[in-house]
From TrEMBL:
Species whose genome carries this gene: Methylobacterium phyllostachyos
Full protein name: Pimeloyl-ACP methyl ester carboxylesterase
Signal sequence bounds: 1-24
GO cellular component: membrane
GO terms, biological process: acylglycerol catabolic process
Gene Ontology molecular-function annotations: monoacylglycerol lipase activity
Residue ranges constituting the AB hydrolase-1 domain according to the UniProt record: 75-322
InterPro entries, per the entry: AB_hydrolase_1, AB_hydrolase_fold, AB_hydrolase_sf, Epox_hydrolase-like
Gene3D superfamilies hit by this protein: alpha/beta hydrolase
Pfam families, A to Z: Abhydrolase_1
Keywords: Signal
């Protein structure tokens, strides 16, 4: 474990042990730079600089070699509240199993550029990722996408079907059309104002309920600190604005209608206690109750995607790879071994 992570964990345990809410408020919020300066990743961070939408941007990424190469490459695509570093356990397991592993931070996220003006679309993020992989000489990766990264992976497979060996979707969002089900319109300004209020406490509460099926462990704390520090640093406004643009992209670009067109071998890995639905707290109670039922959504996606295989984790939530990394990694490596 990195020394920084040990420090973060110690601070987290101390914070959780505080006797009352007033004491908790006195604990300083973490603060990192607009590109997560000050937060260490578990592997060396590299940079890909490229032009996009009339500006020069840089995409941070991890490129971890296989211990004993099997000639295959896994590309890990993070979710909305995640970064390349949150794949640490999967990167180590895949590398040990013979895979080269590439994990980018998408534009607008984590250690990558936060453009003030950018049209965020899944097609654009897929094109950015494709350009990175072309530069690295990766031609037919196994795409593994979690949450929003699952939506991105699906769009990538639709754009470049001959350039994807396999597709793995881990509790992807976009398995239902929230707007069609009754989510009211949410403006960019509304998303922006919500993001400006993000704190370590709000992140921890949300992740406990959604990512970890109601069970919090101190080992999750570094990732709360990572996200809270990014949203509390000197780039707070830029981070919040790009986050608002991303939320708008997620809600307005549902991918489920194109699932029957996916022509890539697909593995769905679904934590059954997930209840994720972007913006559901803004929906009327009767609509809110109908959203985020992943046991049904996962099965429906498996039926819609030709030849898809489904692995279910009965006791896990939105982030099965983090709740039970050992069990998840075993299922993942067994799943992608099937060609």
């Amino acid at each position: 474990m990195q020394p920084l992570f040990q420090t973060i964990l110690a601070a987290a345990i101390l914070a959780l042990a505080l006797p009352d809410a007033a004491s908790a408020e006195r604990v300083a919020e973490p603060s990192y730079g607009a590109e997560l300066e000050g937060f260490a990743y578990p592997f060396p961070v590299k940079r890909f600089t490229f032009p996009s939408q009339r500006q020069e941007l840089q995409m941070a990424y991890l490129d971890v070699p296989a211990e004993t190469p099997n000639g295959r490459t896994a590309v890990l695509l993070h979710g909305k509240n995640f970064c390349a570093a949150t794949w640490e356990s999967q990167i180590r397991a895949l590398s040990a199993a013979g895979y080269r592993v590439i994990a980018p931070d998408q534009i607008g996220f984590c250690k990558s550029s936060k453009p003030a003006a950018y049209q965020f679309t899944f097609r654009q993020l897929a094109e950015n990722t494709h350009a990175l992989l072309a530069t690295l000489g990766v031609e037919r990766p196994i795409l593994i996408g979690h949450s929003t990264g699952g939506m991105l992976a699906a769009h990538y497979a639709l754009l470049y079907p001959r350039e994807v060996e396999q597709l793995v979707l881990v509790n992807p969002v976009g398995l239902e059309d929230w707007s069609a089900k009754g989510l009211p319109p949410v403006s960019l300004e509304q998303w922006y104002q919500r993001e400006l209020k993000v704190s370590a406490a709000s992140i921890r509460a949300y992740e406990t309920a959604t990512y970890y099926a109601g069970h919090w462990e101190a080992r999750y704390e570094p990732w709360v600190t990572m996200l809270a520090g990014l949203n509390n640093g000197p780039g707070k406004a830029a981070v919040a604005w790009d986050s608002a643009l991303v939320y708008d992209m997620i809600v307005t670009e549902p991918v489920l209608y194109r699932f029957p067109q996916i022509a890539v071998p697909t593995l769905l890995m679904i934590g059954q206690k997930d209840n994720t639905a972007i913006g559901k707290d803004l929906a009327p109670p009767e609509v809110r109750a109908s959203l985020g039922h992943y046991p049904e959504l996962g099965k429906a996606a498996a039926r819609a995607i030709p030849g898809a295989r489904l692995v279910e984790f009965p006791e896990l939530g939105h982030a099965p790879q983090m709740s039970d990394p050992e069990g998840f990694n075993k299922a993942l490596i067994e799943g992608i071994a099937v060609r």
